[in-house]
User: What shape does this take?
Amino acid sequence: MSALLYPFIVLSAIGLILSLIVHTSALLGYDLGFGQAVWALHVGIFVVWLPTILAARKTTSDFKQRDFRKAALRGCPDWMRKMTYGFFAYAIVNFAIFMFSTMKHPGSNSGEPTSAVLRGFSGHWMAFYSAALSTLYSATRAKEVDASRRCQNGHLVSLLAKYCEECGSLVPQK
Assistant: This one.
């Protein structure tokens, strides 16, 4: 299954980079000249999210719902996990700013997206593309991570265990 995920990992990375470019240009008030074509990033989220949901369901099926995020992202490096959480936190703040700015200054009726609208949407695009990237990447490495988790005495332990089920010794947390 993991070989099928690589094209979607690449698409997620491309979507994240492009949404960062759109967001930065919107913040700076710079028009990239793509007009309505930027909305392809909106559609692209749906392309990468179906495999993301399927991969997450498969890799988290043995875990409790409250541990979903930790289980879904267990194969990620720490920087990738933090990046995803950071983009989601930023998306919330950015959305509040977007709502405030569009209530005070409604957009034009030209059909072209304003920089405020692009800033609002691209903040969410960054969050969802980074979550897709992290979840899909993690799914390709979940078995490897699960097989390498051991207690101080070398016994294999489950992902969320704090103590070894076999000997009771402390499990080093990363």
About this structure: The radius of gyration is 20 Å. The first helix runs from residue 2 to 28. DSSP finds five helices and no strands in the chain. Residues 2-147 form one domain.
